[in-house]
Write a structure and sequence with these properties.
The chain is mainly α. The chain has helices spanning 3-10, 19-39, 45-67, 75-96, 103-117. Helix 2 (19-39) packs antiparallel against helix 5 and helix 3 (45-67) runs antiparallel to helix 4 (75-96). The protein is globular.
Amino acid sequence: MTFHSAISYAQREAPTRSLRSVEYDLLAQVTQALRSAWTNRATDFPALVRAVTDNTQLWSTLASDVALPGNGLPQALRARLFYLYEFTAKHSRAVLDDKATVEVLADINLAVMRGLRGDGGTK
């Protein structure tokens, strides 16, 4: 038995995660980072820039995905998600210009997380 085959036998397979689960976790992570960075913005502005940038990049990726012709989501939902990307990009610039807070960005992320979880936007 070679070293690599021994490792292959020793490794347990990771459970398969759904795309919804991955999206949920990513949104949760960037939302937590946004809130934490906002709280500490006076002493660590670069962390706020990173958090806002990460959130914008996540939304850019989501927007790219919903813009693809083969995306299986209903057209109306795709349009709303793309609009949310446009809004978050604009609002993020206002946050970095010290003209807005991250609360709306966090609220949007939380609403999408509820949808991914199947809560239908309640709570």
